[in-house]
Amino acid sequence: MGYILDTNDMNQVLETLKKEYLIYAPKVFCGGGRLSDTDCVRYAEINSVEEIIFDRKSDYSFKEVLLPVSETLFFFTEESVTEASARKKGAVIFVRSCDVHALERLDEMYLKNGAPDYYYQRLRERTLIVLMGCNSSDQTCFCVSMGTNKTDAYDLAVNKIAGKYEVDVKNRNLDSLFAERKTERADITPMYVTENQTTVHIPANLDQRIIKSSMWQEYNSRCINCGRCNFVCPTCTCFTMQDLYHDENGKMGERRRVWASCMVDGYTDVAGGGSYRKTNGERMRFKVLHKIYDYTKRTGHHMCVGCGRCDAICPEYISYSHCLNKLEAGMQEVIDHE
């Protein structure tokens, strides 16, 4: 059963949730874009439904709610180690269908790929997902091609239509938020797009021979290895460890898990001065094939969810979706040379 709420009712629901949860959603940061006269939409804590941006894709993904950019794991002294505290409240996150699929990828990597990651798990298990209905597709989206344009893996789903909020309640524990309100009831289906301006085709015969293709060489000069594509991606999970010392003798401090990027210098440095994937073309090859080949072989579905944020953020206008569409020609080039 679903409900149709006005703005006031929706805010009352959020106020009730705020007693136990922090509420995160896409929010406009005026003047926070890449240029001084542009805005930025990214995830942040919100206090009212009016702050939530329903009609524009966020420039950055939701993942920093569950995987902070810099997260303290523990504090240490010469004689003791103390675990860093987690958030006191749980989290409610408003996300689109592609990001729900991305969350499933994060769960696979952090909870099912060997022993669960303790720090991710303690945040994830206190998280509620609110699906935001999509009634239009952004120019760089290709979720339909990746099969991530719809989902039923949510606690609540919200469509914003003509100033009203259609809410589908899937988590029965949340029924009490709505049942006592004098609101209209209806059968609600989350909105989703059925086509994108951008389409992607991944060849069925894709295999490891694609690493021999010359298609990767163009990225040696085009890519500036800034790593922005990794940082906005909802399924990129690479990190590094940093120790921050609190005194001069190095016997007191904290260990932090900090986002890293496979596209930047130093990521593949190893002991003895070695470094793998030195060229930007090699790094692009690794990123692409990890998303739609290596991971796919292990799980049966692609890591990439087609959100298109990497295409939108790249300062050199490198299109990841166009790169995927070059794979078929790249495979044919390799086959012709065998």
From TrEMBL:
Keywords: Iron, Iron-sulfur, Metal-binding. It comes from the Bacteria. The keyword Iron-sulfur applies. InterPro entries: 4Fe4S_Fe-S-bd, 4Fe4S_Fe_S_CS, Sulphite_reductase_A. Residues 213-244, 295-323 form the 4Fe-4S ferredoxin-type domain. The keyword Transmembrane does not apply. This is Anaerobic sulfite reductase subunit AsrA. The lineage of its organism: Bacteria, Bacillati, Bacillota, Clostridia, Lachnospirales. The gene is asrA.
